[in-house]
Amino acid sequence: MQRILLFLYSLRAFLLFVLLEAVAIWLIVSFNSQQGSAFFNSSNKFSGKVLTAQKNVSEYFSLADVNARLLDTNAELLTELEILRKPADSAYVFVDSVLAANFEFKGAKVINNSIRLSQNHLTINKGSKHGIKPGMGVFNGEGVVGRVKGVSTNFATVISLLHTELLISSKVDSSEVFGSIKWDGVSPRYAKMLYVPRHVKVAEGDNIVTSGYNAIFPEGIKVGVISEVKQGSDTNYLDIIVELATDFTKISYVYLVENTVEAELDSLYKSSGISNE
Amino acid sequence: MNSSRVLVLTISFILFSLVQIIVLKNLVLFGMAFCFLHVLFLLLLPIETKTIPSLFIGFVLGLFVDLFYDTVGIHTASMLVIAYLRSPWIKVLTPTGGYDDNMRPTILNVGIGWFSTYSLPLFLIYNLVFFFIENLGTELFLPVVQKIIASTIFVFVLSIIVQLLFYRRRRGI
């Protein structure tokens, strides 16, 4: 017995190494899922505070750029407003609330962003206190950014579109052909569109927008532009490369969108046995 | 080891981790050369540090850096590998006269040749483990190899610069 104990004692460094490594692997496996807890990542209270302090300094360097983008968005919205404005002699018809908007929007500031890993995340300065929930869609003035992963009181972690396991249901704007956008991990400018059958005609330069099928994003938020269509190695699907609309190197402010009927939709899908990507 | 040395080590621990999460996290050269300079703290612990304390230090430092990179456990796992290999690797590299007492293996103390043979393989293993786990499930081979090699070179060059600038001969920072 004593010899066994002595033997184990002589291996103590190795045993500790194995134990701690097992803890690390457990952390990797259990906290890197898409719906993680907010404790062991950048949205916990402590790291959120540090990142906010850092962002408060560094955001001065990008003020001019942010201003220019806001001006662009403003101009677009003004144009849209002009179209919606009723002419003087028009009559107003009340539309039933069934057709009313099912989406609510919120704004937030990005305090942490990465683009060079293969599983990138952002951190934003709004949390459960401000009504942010896991699963909400995130976009900015240019296009889709990602999806909320974990939420703490004041901060939230967002899975970037530049994450090799995130699928965004989207469609070709002109022809309504739908597929899933997935990042391949190489360049932050390009992603791939999966599950588009070979017989479908798509052309370079077609716009890709969100499809609205998976209830995270409303229909029609811009994702990117098709830059290349190849026959590819897969016998069933086309190989489509999409140039992303969002410039991930310069994200400062984002909007979050919440689907107010998502719970209803989810339970409907569940009860009818449909799993949506 | 007296209390002033412990203080110096604690301060450099805090400095290394702060610099890593505030400055170097945003610094990626050419889109592939990452800089994990916090590994240098572990490498520059006094030479007679045993494996068990360095495992604990590596675990804490790795977990702390992980919080900010949103890569829970990946830095921790790689740090633990380095912490475990460090002590045997130092033993293998013992020069003929043996080591001085209480020495930290900085360039100024041990020379650039010894430091290169000591640190380069460890940096390489760190980046290898980190990018291997990080890219599990993806089919990227070439970009990962590029990242590993570029990061190793970058962090090695930066660690030489940091030591020449901030370390004095014999006694710590």
UniProtKB/TrEMBL annotation, chain A:
Domain Rod shape-determining protein MreC beta-barrel core residues, every copy: 110-258
Record-linked InterPro entries: Cell/Rod_1 (IPR042177), Cell/Rod_MreC_2 (IPR042175), MreC (IPR007221), MreC_beta-barrel_core (IPR055342)
Pfam families: MreC (PF04085)
Keywords: Cell shape
Record field: transmembrane: none
Function: Involved in formation and maintenance of cell shape.
Family: Belongs to the MreC family.
Name of protein: Cell shape-determining protein MreC
Phylogenetic placement of the source organism: Bacteria, Pseudomonadati, Bacteroidota, Cytophagia, Cytophagales
TrEMBL record, chain B:
Transmembrane segments: 6-24, 29-47, 67-85, 106-133, 148-167
Keywords, alphabetical: Membrane, Transmembrane, Transmembrane helix
Top-level taxon in the UniProt lineage: Bacteria
Name the UniProt record assigns to this protein: Rod shape-determining protein MreD
Organism name: Belliella kenyensis
